[in-house]
Amino acid sequence: MYVDHLQLVDFRSYESVDVGLLPGVTTLVGSNGQGKTNLVEAIEYLSTMTSHRVASDVPLVRAGADRAVIRARVTAGRDDARQLQLEVEITPGKANRARLNRSPLRRAREIVGLLRTVVFSPEDLAMVKGDPSERRRFLDDLLVTRWPRLAGVRADYDRVLRQRNTLLKSLSGRSRGGPASADAASTLDVWDSHLARAGGELLAARLTTLADLAPHVSKAYADIAPTNNDATAEYKTAVALADQASREELSDLLLTAMGERRTEEIQRGVSLVGPHRDDIALALGLLPAKGYASHGESWSFALALKLGSFHLLRTDGIEPVLVLDDVFAELDVTRRERLASGVSAAEQVVVTAAVGADVPEVLQGRRFRVAGGKVTEDA
Fold first, then answer.
1. pLDDT of residue 339
2. Which pLDDT does position 181 carry in this prediction?
3. Does residue 158 have a pLDDT over 80?
4. How far is CA 352 from CA 115, 121, 362, 366, 372, in A?
5. Burial of 179: CB neighbours in 10 Å, binned 0-12, 13-18, 19+
6. Residue 42 predicted with pLDDT over 90
7. Strand bridging mode 80-90 / 68-77
8. DSSP tag of 275
9. How far apart are the first and last CA of the chain?
10. DSSP codes of every residue in 3-29
11. How far apart are CA 330 and CA 294, in angstroms?
12. Could you tell me where the beta strands, DSSP code E, fall in the chain?
């Protein structure tokens, strides 16, 4: 799978730009602030309806414009000439709209998964050094890339969690004046059931994906930064997990845990049980990566998580577009060469760099210069 044409209208810094792409390696070279990352961010957004840079859609629309449009033509593969025309219209404050082959989709998120990507950027260092939410987001993004229908499950879980927290906060205020009413308790039972059902499905997908991913991460880390320390990733949750528990069993475990902590949840006015409270423990050898890994080790671990994701998807039979956004400047020569060798066989790799010489020779494919809102191919 690869993108062979990208068009942006009022997206980020671009009023209008068209870029023709090919399978293999494409390098976007330009000084900082010229719009290299904006191009790969647009590819990522078409794939996931999210950005690795911002949580809101507002910054994605060029200043002074009302909306932004991303269009891309995607070819199924080098040996498969089938093509899809993908389009997303981003309008802050309104529901985004998506089109497939110029036909409107009922919901914009239905476009998720038609293009698969793995993006590595400087922000990904937060997966190792940051809060648990960064690691949860990484894992959830990966499982949605594997199984796009889970984008709906993820959205449903977030929606139910917000509504349940609103109810708990309301009950917290009432509890100071006496016990909650029977109607309020009954309403909470309903939200418990909804949260446990969506949470069980999300948790099952996380556990399966992390178990499948872990050996790829370990190998990727060893390939990038040879060391005696193994890179490991272990799921951490407050729920007592049974071996190979089914989705239904996980839902029951979550529901039981909610019942056990109901009084505390009402007192605090927040949901204390569920996948939104979990973490992925990353370790190098016997020590946790967070707080103990050096800067170089942390970079290598973050890169191993994304390369592991890339290799897992290929094992699944998915050929994702691999984006390396401003990565090589942070790596020493040895790690650059090892990384380049590990990804050179990908169907499509899009690299951004401020200095073209930072990109190893093995990844010297087509090169574009990005400057002043224009993208021009080197002769």
1. 87
2. 59
3. yes
4. 20, 10, 15, 12, 16
5. exposed
6. yes
7. antiparallel
8. G
9. 26
10. EEEEEEEEETTEEEEEEE--SEEEEEE
11. 13
12. 2-11, 14-20, 24-29, 68-77, 80-90, 97-100, 103-104, 117-120, 231-236, 279-284, 287-288, 321-325, 348-353, 366-371, 374-377
For every residue of 226-246, DSSP letters joined together read: --SSPEEEEEE-SS-PPTT--
CA torsion 185-189-192-196 (nearest 10°) is 160
Look at residue 122 in the predicted model and tell me its pLDDT. Answer: 87
| 278-329 pLDDT per residue, tens | 999 999 999 999 999 998 899 999 999 999 999 999 999 999 999 999 988 8
Q: What is the DSSP letter of 35?
A: S
CA pair distance 43, 318, nearest whole angstrom: 17
Token pair of 149, please? 């229908």
Whether residue 115 is predicted with pLDDT greater than 90 in this model: the reply is yes
Q: Which long-range contacts does 250-256 make (Cβ < 8 Å, 24+ apart)?
A: 250/199, 250/200, 250/203, 250/204, 251/196, 251/197, 251/199, 251/200, 251/201, 252/196, 252/200, 253/200, 254/195, 254/196, 254/199, 254/200, 254/203, 255/192, 255/193, 255/196
Q: What are phi and psi of 269, to 5 degrees?
A: 70, 35
The rounded mean pLDDT for the chain is 90
CA 291-295-298 angle, to 5 degrees, is 70
pLDDT given for residue 180 in this prediction: 55
The tokens for 379 are 């002769």
Q: Single out the residue of 106, 83, 94 nearest to residue 152, CA to CA.
A: 106
Within 10 angstroms of residue 138's Cβ, the number of other Cβ atoms is: 20
Q: Give the Cα separation of 325 and 40 in Å (integer).
A: 8
Strand partners, 353: 29
